[in-house]
Amino acid sequence: xxxxxxxxxxxxxxxxxxxxxxxxxxxxxxxxxxxxxxxxxxxxxxxxxxxxxxxxxxxxxxxxxxxxxxxxxxxxxxxxxxxxxxxxxxxxxxxxxxxxxxxxxxxxxxxxxxxxxxxxxxxxxxxxxxxxxxxxxxxxx
Length: 141
Prior knowledge:
Number of strands: 6
Oligomer: single chain
Number of helices: 5
């Protein structure tokens, strides 16, 4: 699990709700724990069913994570974790926000694609190992 920060990553969200209704429902559910700075929920094929909830305080995020883990939300069991990094909203509030250059954005997107492919295909094998595997498969009866 990531170390505690103000931002929670939520997944296993219903994808039948439109974006506006999903954000509203998440706000009502999570705002009972404290002030919410931002809710980011996207509906692209790759990001549907996921959201980020940014709170003002780490303690509030910890309490929400503890209490809402596995709670039924529109018929689905919520899965929560601390986000891997601070949200832009929190960075802007605490003065640490730095706008990424186009090159940094491109590199981040390429790394994300590589990570995604690694999940699907597994690690790349050296050429000699691939040839050996093919030879073994061909020789098998």
